[in-house]
Amino acid sequence: MDTAIVSNTEPTQKEHPGDGFTVLFVDDEPSILRSIKRIIHKTNINMLTANSGQEALALFAEHEITMIVSDMKMPNMSGSELLEQVASLYPETYRVILTGFADLDSIMQAVNQGGIHRYIQKPWDNQDLLLTIKDGLQFTKLKRENHTLQQKLFKQNRALKELAQSLDKKVDVKTKQIQLALKKIKHEQSASEKVLFNCISVHPELDGLFAKSVSKLAAQIAQAMDLDPTQIKHIMQAALLCQIGLLGKEVHLFNTAFNDLNYEQQKAYVRQVDIAMMMLSPLPHLQPVIDIIQNQFEYFNGQGYPDMSVGKDIPIGARILFIARDFWRYRTGKVSIKQYDAIEAKAEMNRHRGTKYDPDILDIFAKLDVLNETLPDDGSKVLSQIEVGMELSKDIFNEKYVLMLPEGHTFTEVTIGKLKHYERNHKEQLRIFVKP
Question: 22-146 has which fold?
Fold first, then answer.
């Protein structure tokens, strides 16, 4: 078996890009192979030679061959038969046939059966031979690069898919929590209140009393505007759920007064509506409520968020919610550290009539008697009010949302003592709801 590897360190790589590629030349005439060696020796191509088809196949078993150039007419195994086997066993190999025949049918048969990429007719022109080899190697190089890019793209797409699935799972968790809350409203006296408190149970930092006050004020405004009962119901539900998008936000965004947040944090705060839409979207019957929540930060002049409406196109429920919500945000120190009284809050909001707030709704709101309104009592007790024999009406969670005692538990001296010990050690006051 006549084999050779020919390389050269001369700077000819740009003309003949052969680095990393091996080309096998097959011919039963040694003089032909020697002639090819003289042509190839100034290139960077790794060269192998074989005198027959059998020797060529043996070399394939030992080397990674990029390209094969075979004579057509050889004893025992013709070039077309050899290349046909190469196409079957090593389909990525670039295949070229050398033929001294002028018979077009033989050439076409070799092309069809052996999957030949190119053919060169003897006697060849040296430059044509080099150009054919260069083109074949360039083709293989591009093919490999394309395969590499496809693999990279596949991995990136798989990573994106896994990320999307991870995000979908998180959304599914939130959605299932909301759906579970909505199922429970059928068995409660106040449906929308139960929805809200089930949502709050997902994140104990949210303020259910604030939402109840906003809902009550929004209903008063809607009733004063003589809206129909269905609209009023949707507005009340939207007010109770207006903070639901904060479930997906960092705690400091709603534990800090809005005016003390930086610009990017304020943007993140108002974009809670995007999370709310995502969480509530599986509930199509709540679409009117979703529309109100989505637009609750849209200014009357269209400059708020999502900044895509003009005043008359913003749902009336959203314009009402904007006013009712901000009144209580001023009252409870959620806009600035200062807690405004009712008169101060009205005056501050009046400074933004026609920009943030609908002036007509603001005038109706100004006529309501809200001077003495306070946040309602949620009915919870502190531990000092708990006696042996009382029964829990709701689960007890600590500030980190760890279950302390389940609903239905009957208090004993032991459980009361354990809760007192916990409160002393963690400097935390638990909210406890008991049955009458």
Answer: Rossmann fold (3.40.50)
Least confident of 79-88, 300-309, 331-340: 300-309
Residue that has been written with the tokens 């001296």 in this structure: 413
Phi, psi of 243 (to 5 degrees): -95, 5
CA distances from 60 to 23, 24, 136, 209, 388 (A): 11, 9, 18, 79, 87
Closest Cα partner for 145 from 249, 7, 20, 279? 20
Measure the N-to-C terminal CA separation of the chain; round to a whole number of Å.
100
Q: What are the phi and psi torsion angles at 410 (to 5°)?
A: -100, 125
What is the predicted pLDDT for the residue at 187? 44
pTM greater than 0.70 (yes/no): no
Average pLDDT over residues 70-89: 89
Better pLDDT: 409 or 100: 409
Q: Which phi and psi (to 5°) does residue 118 adopt?
A: -145, 160
pLDDT digits (tens, 9 = 90+) for 233-282: 999 999 988 888 888 777 777 778 899 889 999 999 999 999 888 888 88
Mind giving me the DSSP string for 357-376? B-HHHHHHHHTS--TT--PP
Buried b (16+ CB within 10 A) or exposed e, 269-291: bbbbbebbeebbeeeeebebbbb
The answer to whether 376 and 213 have CB atoms below 8 angstroms apart is yes
- Residue 182's φ and ψ, nearest 5 degrees, are -65, -30
∠ CA 272-275-278 to the nearest 5 degrees?
150
CATH class of 188-366: mainly alpha
Contact present, 179 and 293 (Cβ < 8 Å): no
- 6: Cβ contacts below 8 Å, ≥ 6 apart: 37, 40, 41, 45, 46, 47
Please report, for the chain, the start and end positions of each structural domain, with discontinuous segments joined by +: 22-146, 188-366, 383-426
Of 92, 91, 70, whose CA–CA distance to 81 is shortest?
A: 70
Q: Go through the chain and tell me how many residues it has.
A: 436
- Which has the closest alpha carbon to 362: 391, 392, 404, 320? 320
